[in-house]
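Worked Example 4.2. Consider the chain below.
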Amino acid sequence: MSNLTVNEFYSRKMALLKQCLTLSEELMSSLDNWESLDDILYRRNKIIEEIQLMESASDGELLLGLSDEQNKEIDRLIKLILDLDRDTGKLIRKEQDTILESIKSNVQQQKMMQYGSQSMSQYGSPSMPQNGSRMNYKK
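Applying the procedure from the previous section yields the following structure tokens:
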């Protein structure tokens, strides 16, 4: 890869960053489909590894040879990916909180139902007291 020109390096890096952006968008839109997340993250990590490999294989002169405009465009795309990832992280945390609250509510309801069924089996139905537990002693 060190045989790349500055423009080829720039074009290749931009193409990889755009693929990464597309996968980040796909990740954000697929949060409801948990089964697909591993595949999306795997593909995105492969692209990131390819970028890192390309940068490490270049002799450094390619990075220095980029124009200010090219560097700004690369930085803008990276910032966009990071912002999207941050928003996706917030959505994941929000979904986790929603699920956690749902679980807590469900556990509490189950405890109440369990308590209700235990008291029913111990004391009978509420409308029919057993063993004089609700007798009127004023007679």
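Helices lie at 6-29, 34-57, 61-65, 68-123. The longest helix spans residues 68-123. Compare this with Example 4.1 before moving on.
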